[in-house]
What does this fold into?
Amino acid sequence: MTKTILMRKLKNSELDRLSIDDFKDAKKTPIIIILDNIRSLNNIGSVFRTSDAFLIEIIYLCGITAKPPHKDIHKTALGSTDTVNWEYAENTIDLVEKLKANNVVICAIEQAENATMLNDFTPKPQTTYALVFGNEVKGVSQDVVNASDIVIEIPQFGTKHSLNISVSCGVVVWDVFSKLEVRS
It folds into this structure.
């Protein structure tokens, strides 16, 4: 016979959430997000929420990726555009080269020859990683893939072999965050 354990859902007031000022002052996870020509405003907002949840350093919005403030970004970001640092960069490859010059490891999240499967990726301590997520149809541009230090692929076993960019971001950020053990 299995013993049932009752659990009470927590109220929002019990979640010990950071204020905006406390968030801004908090030590950030050494992860940067680069959005390479993302067209869906809802995806952009979702990436902001994920970035808030894991104290991401900064989001770079590149190319056609829309910028806050925008009502459709706000709809899914739920205020995280006020907490997470972000900048716009017109050209993704120029940004990648600038970050590489500052010893940031560039990781394209893409399906590619010789990609490292996410479950096999082991981040190094005291290293900042930039995770590049690409356009909903075309993915990460080939020139950015070529300039990346590593290409990471999310293993998939079904028929579609495709995840929404906001889902991909959540999967990869959680995996890298947990492997970095920055909050333990």
User: Anything to note?
Assistant: The first helix runs from residue 20 to 25.
